[in-house]
Design brief:
There is one protein chain. The protein is mainly α and 114 residues long. The protein has one domain. It contains six helices and two strands; from the N terminus they run αββααααα. The chain has a two-stranded antiparallel sheet with strand order 1-2. Strand 1 and strand 2 form a beta hairpin. Helix 2 packs across helix 4, helix 3 packs across helix 4 and helix 4 crosses helix 5. The protein is globular, with a radius of gyration of 17 Å. 16% of the residues are buried.
């Protein structure tokens, strides 16, 4: 299946919503006060309390970034759905991230060695 350039830049969440990934990244950084990566590290860490605090902060930031309302409101989603979407989004970004080293014969590589 062929996709337009615009379609390739749209993130599709596991819940079926479409997002601009750059806008979501920016909202996550702002909502986490620039601590998004540190929160991810703490969330996956060994210490239970730090992990719980990080998870709460990530859920709050992700709810804002993905515009999810709490479960008890109409159309709301659970924290588990928020975390699933956030995890899926970070995996989506990791898959799109270019490798650090360009191929040996690429224009970037050639330009750097001139």
């Amino acid at each position: 299946m062929f996709y337009s350039d615009a379609e390739r830049t749209i993130y599709q969440s596991p819940l079926g919503h479409s997002y601009d990934p750059l806008a979501v990244q920016r909202k996550l950084r702002i909502a986490s006060r620039g601590q998004f990566n540190a929160l991810l590290i703490d969330w996956q860490g060994e210490e239970d309390f730090a992990s719980a605090v990080a998870e709460e902060a990530l859920v709050i930031a992700a709810r804002e970034a993905f515009e999810f309302v709490p479960f008890d409101e109409e159309g709301g989603v659970t924290d588990a759905q928020v975390i699933e979407t956030l995890t899926h989004f970070t995996e989506y970004l990791a898959a799109k991230k270019p490798s650090a080293e360009p191929p040996p014969n690429s224009p970037v590589s050639s330009a750097c060695h001139s």
